[in-house]
Design goal:
This protein is α+β, with helices and mostly antiparallel strands. The protein folds into three domains: 163 residues, D-Maltodextrin-Binding Protein, domain 2; 97 residues, Dipeptide-binding Protein, Domain 1 (Dipeptide-binding Protein, domain 1), CATH 3.90.76; 207 residues, Dipeptide-binding Protein, domain 3, CATH 3.10.105. The chain is built from 15 helices and 20 strands. The strands form five sheets. Strands 1, 2, 9, 10, 11, 12, 13, 14, 17 and 18 form a ten-stranded mixed sheet that branches. It has a four-stranded antiparallel sheet with strand order 5-6-8-7, covered by helices on one side. It is globular and about 65 Å long. It comes from Nocardia jiangsuensis.
Length: 512
């Protein structure tokens, strides 16, 4: 079966005739909904892709398109609400014992696409695969708290998880990025079999994926008959495909693109505030950023407001080199960093880096990253540093940054601060881009997640954030909107932070 694909050449051909067509902004609300949802139709959604290396394996999902497909095909035990708190999904409820070391999960009545019922054995098998050290899967860092050998299926609809230590944040684990439930014994991820609202039909890596309504989904059948994911690495290609009628949904647009097309009537813009964290990652385990002085110099030369104004068109908040502004446990008491070029120059000299030329790896893999890298390079020159902006392969960028480059562009969707720490900052974290590894920091994390009292737990997280602010490798310069655009015929697209339950949630979308 052949399916249409969206390549840059075709998009740019459309652009010549579509340049005057503009976006109509809906100020975060999207198109006005129809009187009632309608069933039927195929929605075509275009995302930035990962080329021929992209995967359908939900446990290996990393890109936005992979995450969106995974949530269409599979379910997790929990997912994050728009307030970044866990919400039950396949788990109907969860209950800890007084010690916080055993958690009992009651499963919903759900079925896989092949008709098999969801069982406790499927949950245990899914988590065993994620925890397999040979797999090197992203969610492993979050699930590592589980003592799987001591966990058990009480019955087909009840799982009792034994934990290695008291862990008050265990619902975050159930909602962790990539922690999807697959059938016991399932190994063919080229033909997915999940409990999600859409069932698999066809897949061409780097090109398209076709899914169809799953009528027996536990949360109700989708309105759409079919959902097709198409790929285009360039933002201009995605918006031009929408303007040209090749797709009905375009993901990951920059604030500049949205703002420049505010006045038309062809499409609607859906904005989700405080949805994306923008930054740069310095690897603290290798030259030149193994020198704390140079990391601090970068913190002090970065003009965050200029970055927000130029890259996010002013539609965002400045960052303070800490993830999760506005989320639970975020420490607002830490003073906001401001530009101090004199101090930055002195630190550059102290680090022996005066006049140094440092590669800054970036990519078009996410909207605005190249622009942000260019702005930072301009700012660094005033402190005696030359940052050489190098564009990496957009299809492999996120995998490449794990081990390549001392300084890289970085961007993150939404997740709890605890999950950010577990997956990116602990010594054995699976997605530790900065290579931060501090035993005393890991010990504080163990204390935080074992502390039942919320105020005391918040103070431990504050201590950890003070360590990161002083010595860490992330330069979080801003928090901005997640922006998508849709055809006017599309209704039901929610304004929700990236990587939360209602983001890229197509089972509740319909077409006029």
């Amino acid at each position: 079966m052949q399916h249409p694909t969206l390549d840059r050449r075709r998009f740019l051909g459309i652009a010549a005739g579509a340049g005057a067509v503009a976006l109509a902004a809906a100020c975060g609300t999207g198109p006005e909904p129809a009187a009632a949802p309608r069933a039927g139709g195929r929605l075509r959604a275009v995302f930035a892709g990962g080329g021929a290396r992209e995967v359908l394996d939900p446990h290996r999902a990393n890109l936005f398109v992979e995450a969106a497909r995974a949530k269409a095909l599979y379910d997790k035990l929990a997912d994050l609400g728009s307030d970044v708190a866990p919400r039950p999904r396949l788990a109907e409820r969860w209950e800890p014992d007084p010690s916080l070391t055993r958690w009992r999960i009651t499963l919903r009545q759900a079925v896989f696409h092949d008709g098999r019922p969801l069982r406790a054995a499927d949950v245990l098998a899914s988590y065993a695969r994620i925890l397999d050290p040979a797999q090197a899967l992203r969610a492993r860092s979050s699930l590592a708290v589980i003592d799987l050998a001591a966990s058990r299926a009480v019955d087909d609809r009840t799982v009792e998880f034994a934990l290695r230590r008291p862990f008050v944040e265990f619902p975050n684990v159930l909602a962790a990025f990539g922690a999807y439930i697959v059938p016991e014994g399932h190994t063919d991820f080229d033909r997915p079999n999940g409990t999600g609202p859409f069932a698999f039909r066809a897949f061409e890596p780097g090109r398209s994926t076709l899914l169809a309504r799953f009528a027996d989904h536990w949360d109700g059948a989708p309105h759409l008959d079919e959902l097709e994911f198409l790929l285009a690495g360039e933002e201009s290609a995605r918006i031009n495909a929408l303007l040209g009628g090749q797709v009905e949904y375009a993901h990951d647009l920059s604030a500049t693109t949205a703002r420049s097309h505010e006045a038309g009537g062809r499409v609607a813009v859906v904005r989700s505030a405080n949805s994306l964290a923008h930054g740069f990652a310095m690897k603290v385990d290798r030259p030149p950023f193994d020198r704390r002085e140079l990391r601090e110099a970068l913190f002090l030369l970065a003009d965050r407001q200029q970055l927000v104004d130029s890259v996010l068109s002013g539609a965002g908040q400045v960052g303070n080199d800490l993830f999760g502004r506005g989320y639970q446990y975020y420490d607002d008491a830490i003073p906001q960093r401001t530009v101090d070029l004199d101090r930055a120059r002195a630190l550059v000299r102290a680090a022996g880096a005066d006049g140094a030329r440092i590669d800054l790896l970036t990519s078009t893999a996410s909207a605005g990253m190249v622009e942000a890298a260019t702005v930072l390079a301009d700012q660094a020159r005033a402190a005696g540093l030359t940052l050489n902006v190098v564009q990496g392969n957009k299809d492999t960028y996120w995998a490449d940054t794990l081990n390549t480059g001392a300084l890289t562009s970085f961007r993150s969707g939404t997740m709890p601060i605890e999950t950010h720490i577990a997956q990116r900052l602990l010594g054995g974290a699976s997605n530790n881009v900065t290579k931060w590894n501090r035993p005393e920091f890991d010990a504080l994390y163990d204390t935080a997640v074992a502390t039942a009292d919320p105020a005391a737990r918040t103070e431990v997280y504050a201590r950890m954030q003070r360590m990161l602010h002083s010595d860490g490798g992330y330069l979080w310069w801003g928090f901005g909107e997640s922006i998508v655009a849709t055809a006017r015929s599309v209704s039901g697209v929610a304004s929700a932070p990236a990587n939360t339950l209602d983001w890229a949630r197509f089972d509740k979308v319909w077409m006029a």
